[in-house]
Amino acid sequence: MSLPDRAFFVPKSKRAALFAILAGTLIAIAGCTVQPLYSGGSGTSSIGGSVTPGMREKLASIAIEPANTRYGQEVRNKLIFLLSGGAGEPANPAYRMSLGVASSTTAAVRVNVGDATDKTGRPSAGTVRVTSRYLLRDMAGKPVAKGTRVVSSSFDRPRQEFANLRAERDAQDRAAQELAEQLMLAVAQDLSKH
Hey, what's the signal peptide range on this chain (predicted)? Predict the structure, then answer.
């Protein structure tokens, strides 16, 4: 046997072990099923003669109860848009979602504003924290999913009062939009298990 032949020579027992490891790995990989969250393939699949809707159809069949605050309405509107793909609320919903949305604002940084004699320690930055508890039920009233999501958004606090209020409101809107996106993903994940 020449030197190049010895470099690629593997004893028969080691070849069998390598083959067994390779075969076991291939079998394990073949058993794995990874499916995108929103995949529906052709949109529906037939299981036992009935049609099971894809994830997009499940999300579009969720009705959301009305909100009672401005930032709650922001979350609700964005969530309706995300769930339905812009089509609005469903005429015949399969699920009903309750949202409890709360917002709080805190001073993030306090610095002395103005000259050295101004020791007010007025806040120069703030953080808006928007929290939502959700409960998803089927139309029979049986709970399907529930959870809590929290989003924070920072903003600068200028000296002018109107600019300060507007900056806080913009931070609430940004937090509401991100919260709606997190809620949509959480609900999609819950529905994929249901």
Answer: none
> Residues 58-76, buried b or exposed e (16+ Cβ, 10 A)?
bbbbbbbeebeeebbebbb
Dump pLDDT digits (tens) for 93-108: 889 999 999 888 887 6
CATH code given to domain 63-112+119-193: 3.30.160.150
Strands (E), 112-183: 123-138, 143-156
- Answer yes or no: are the C-beta atoms of 108 and 124 closer than 8 Å: no
- Predicted TM-score (pTM) of the model is 0.66
Spell out the alpha helix ranges (H) of 32-160.
Answer: 55-60, 70-84
Q: Which residue has the higher pLDDT, 11 or 159?
A: 159
CB 127 within 8 A of CB 106: yes
CA-nearest of 62, 55, 51, 60 to 41 is: 55
Taking the C-alpha atoms of residue 74 and residue 85, their distance in angstroms, rounded to an integer, is 16
Largest separation between any pair of C-alpha atoms in the chain:
93
- In whole angstroms, give the CA distance from residue 127 to residue 168: 8
CA torsion 193-81-137-36 (nearest 10°) is 0
**Inter-axis angle of helices 161-193 and 70-84, nearest 10:** 40
The per-residue b/e assignment along 17-27, b for 16 or more CB within 10 angstroms, e otherwise, is eeeeeeeeeee
